[in-house]
Write a structure and sequence with these properties.
One of its GO terms (cellular component) is cytosol. The chain is an alpha+beta fold. 25% of the residues lie in helices and 28% in strands.
């Protein structure tokens, strides 16, 4: 009889834990609401030709509190909003107008994306714009594209623009250049990078190739 002890099974490495706060999105939404309220309050005050100090005197609120409300730093109570609405002679709901108007959603049905030509691209690169939101409360412009590359597509490793870009490979295979690095992108692969570095599909390995490209950059400030 063998005296060897049974070997214990190899330890299965634990999956990394993703720390995600379920309240984080709600908190962000509250901050956006606060900013929207502050923007409307500032606009109404200026329409009445009032300074912050004058509005504070009329409402009995402190100048500091009014400043924080206008800058979206605090959530004003319903009583405070009622006081401001009565003093400025506007309906209470007027403070929420900007928030309601800026809740964007763009739905594009399959096959209904807009085919466009982006400045700086080469021939044979089919860009299908899947949606676009310009001015919004987030301060960020997001442009999602579906790119299709075929035998007639040129390669170009020197495309540059502002912001960040995320690529998700759907079909085919390309060799993608970013700065001085080269990445082979197969279906299911992704690449996230600073878009101000020279980048683009340098080698068309398996065609046709399709990938999602999501470009984010700060919106122009008026």
């Amino acid at each position: 009889m063998s005296n060897r002890k049974p070997t214990s099974p190899a330890a299965v490495p634990a999956r990394p834990t993703v720390m995600q706060d379920p309240h984080r999105l709600a908190e962000r939404g509250e901050k956006v609401l606060e900013v929207a309220i502050g923007r409307e309050l500032r606009a109404f005050r200026r329409q009445k030709g009032l300074t912050g100090a004058q509005l504070a005197e009329l409402t009995g609120l402190s100048v500091g509190m009014l400043s924080k409300i206008e800058n979206g730093q605090i959530s004003p109570s319903l009583t405070t909003l009622m006081t401001l609405a009565n003093t400025l002679s506007v309906p209470l709901t007027a403070f929420f107008r900007g928030f309601e108007e800026n809740r964007y959603a763009v739905h594009v049905k399959s096959g209904e994306g807009i085919e466009i030509e982006r400045a700086g691209t080469r021939s044979g690169h089919q860009y299908t714009l899947l949606g676009h939101i310009g001015a919004n409360t987030s301060g960020v412009v997001v442009e999602p594209y579906l790119l299709t590359l075929t035998e007639s597509s040129d390669i170009f490793p020197t495309f540059q623009h502002d912001g960040m870009e995320f690529i998700y490979m759907l079909e085919g295979c390309v060799g993608y250049r970013h700065g001085d690095r080269f990445f082979r992108l197969d279906p299911g692969d992704s690449l996230f990078f600073d878009a101000d570095a020279p980048h683009g599909p340098e080698e068309l390995i398996t065609l046709p190739a399709r990938y999602l490209s999501i470009i984010c950059y700060p919106q122009a400030r008026g």
